[in-house]
Design a protein that fits this description.
Structural class of chain A: alpha/beta
Structural class of chain B: alpha+beta
Number of helices of chain B: 11
Radius of gyration of chain B: 20 Å
Radius of gyration of chain A: 21 Å
Largest interface: A-B, 39 and 52 residues
Shape of chain A: elongated
Oligomer: heterodimer
Order of helices and strands of chain A: EEEHEEHE
Distance between the termini of chain A: 40 Å
Largest sheet of chain B: 4 strands, mixed
Distance between the termini of chain B: 34 Å
Chain lengths: ~110, ~350
Amino acid sequence: MSQKTPEGIPARQLTSCGDVSCEWLVNPIPRPEPDPISISLKPKVPRVTFVDHRKPNSKAILTLAQRILRDRGVEVADEVLDKGDASMPMPAAMLARLAGNPGLVVCGVSD
Amino acid sequence: MSHEVLRDIENCMDSGWTDGLPVIPPYASLVDPMLEAMGWEASDVIGEIPDQKIRVRAEQAAATAVMAGCRTEYGPLLRALSQALLDPLFNVSGVEVTTGGASVLVIVSGPIVERLGFEHEANAFGANNRANATVGRFAQMMRFFCGKGGGVLKSHGTIGHPGRISFCIAEHPVTAWGPYHTQFGLPAEASAVSIVATEGPNSCNNHYGSTGEAILRTIADCMAHYGQTAWYYRSGGFVVAIPPDHMDLVGREFSREAARQFLHDHARRQTDDLLRLGRIPATPIAYAEVEWGAPRSPLRDLQQLSFIECGAPGGRFSAVVPRWVGGQHVICRRIDQD
């Protein structure tokens, strides 16, 4: 019987039980400790900040989105921040700064 | 095999403990000897992925080795390979989730190739051989298991390639240009395992060329086709595999350094053509260092190009393996006890 969680996350523990005894199977999959950061999709203030990750067309699309949102009366940060490299994690200092941002943060768009 | 074991295999498959193929269930009684062979205690932390708050313990790597079908004799190699995979410069999470669909190319070189029975000749890129298949599978499973944030991240590979199941090549024990790992500062007599994030390999055929230059021009053209990924950022590179029949010609005319320079000079396209076809944008970022009007190389510098000598005699093929453009490092580790 499948022990995968409803979210599709691999099982934390499996055992093999025969007629008289059981043996643990060693879990090969490391997990975040503590749990990964949570993402809120409901910003506390109606303000949008864009972060470019330098993928092709990302900056052009973000800049266009900036203009469209402004035309619709949404407050948008003037500066499109630069993450540096799409293939690398966001620098810790930038992540910490953005984590405290009460508005909506949009990071890059793919290709 | 008992039905209980088959049930355990199915249980692993149904529970997310798999790369898509049936696995050897990681019974503790199998993982313990693998841990010993790798020279670790179960709770040793062998690497971290700080951005995902993940610490990888030795027992997890050993369980993965068992699941992939590795023999305990591979222990020292798997130890070095695990350390390479978890080297922050390799960026295993990036390799796993990128739209580029990259895999981990594992390159084994030195005396360990023959000692552990790696295939380095026939079908060197897809050998139906236990050492190649299971060591390559181990690396992909580690990528898959460790790079997804414990299963919470989604992989975004647009098309991927079959090497994401297993991709391990071994070098000939005797080479014209010296072992692969000497390109990364290790002594010739060492055994080593190197990893690099790559796209799938391109076969490069030349059956009628009679000079080394003709072979290298063919390889240069393969590196410089319009569809290859590196035209804009140029931050990846290539692994070029040259089997014996091509090497007989190339080795007579070129040293490794001269071949690298030749390919750098000849694998080029006109910048205007790249713009016309949409391979670089009209307003490139400064990082891309676009020089309008100049022939453009997909390489930023010569060190992004490495050579391996493998494959069978009797066919006049080489191969060009484009590196993932997000992976800027080949991680090369010496294998201890060899």
